[in-house]
């Protein structure tokens, strides 16, 4: 894939970039390693001052940054502005919370024969981040904010279709005062990732993207014995039970399916509805999806902008056509619009069967599959019946049923009577083929820390005495 800005609303190539040379990659890794040694010697308060400046710059430049994001990947301007605001909030969250997250954790010293015993969190060093185009700011900041606050440095290999956003991010951290090399953007293709990850100075990697990308990076990192965090694809279930508030569920279902033009790993994609309320929900849902306005992502009235690429639109059209050809029923949408740009209408499709690609594949666009079930047990079977396990929604006003969903849904994130999303305050990640490890909250910051056990003896102590063999 060329490294280029191609406007999805028009298909026009606006700017192209040549990949940087191997010598430039080497220089960037060297600067990152040197900066990691420097950051280890700074205080969390100093790093917090720099990250607070990142937040201030983002806030001041919000409109221009949002316009750039919309131009590069097609999300609505309103959604891009909201993404910038989320990044600002996350930065300030870590400025406030990092001192507590990184503080030494005392242990029961007497029980281990020590004068003092505690856990200390220390940075690992340079971390390679392989990031996607769909949330080109938020995906990067939710890695970079905790990682840099912990004293690590970042090497960003961003998606090739958002190069200007990637360059902006590197400049942002530089202008905020972080040392040279603390955060670097590498304009390289995917073929350069292996050599970067194998470099001994690079200590870990984080990936948000496709299952294929995650497997490739994890395989390399495994051979090199390097820590990885993977946030991969999802085919999130949205289960609606008879006691649900159907009007509210249909409203949230529409937002959940079509946010970011339907291009989100944690967008609800499979709508699993109890037969007692199936038609009532389907009618409400299709009506709301049909009412969404598709068009210029910069226009204030637009609800759904273009898909990111012509290839992405072709893939979604193929998945829908496969289902219809095998007997699925369109409740709305499903027709490619005429004109320029890579638009696809909000679509609801029912009567899906396991023979159809949509039954098991992730659909990365504004297409909702409806699945009719006759019981709680069947709902769980369908919900868990994919290789993915990122997020899940359950809609029920029955407290006992709510608790059962929390236990039974195989997902890293379960939201009851609400839309799955990510918050700095809560850990985020998946299970099964959706990846492993967690971002955000305290655990996300500590993923790229050395959790160091410290045992200190008192006067005359020669060492711990334990009956446990190693």
TrEMBL record:
The keyword Oxidoreductase applies. One of its GO terms (molecular function) is succinate-semialdehyde dehydrogenase (NAD+) activity. Gene3D superfamilies: Aldehyde Dehydrogenase, Chain A, domain 1, Aldehyde Dehydrogenase, Chain A, domain 2. Residues 3-454 form the Aldehyde dehydrogenase domain. InterPro entries: Ald_DH/histidinol_DH, Ald_DH_C, Ald_DH_N, Aldehyde_DH_dom, ALDH_GabD1-like, GABD/Sad-like. Keywords: NADP, Oxidoreductase. Belongs to the aldehyde dehydrogenase family. This is Aldehyde dehydrogenase. It comes from Salinispora tropica (strain ATCC BAA-916 / DSM 44818 / JCM 13857 / NBRC 105044 / CNB-440).
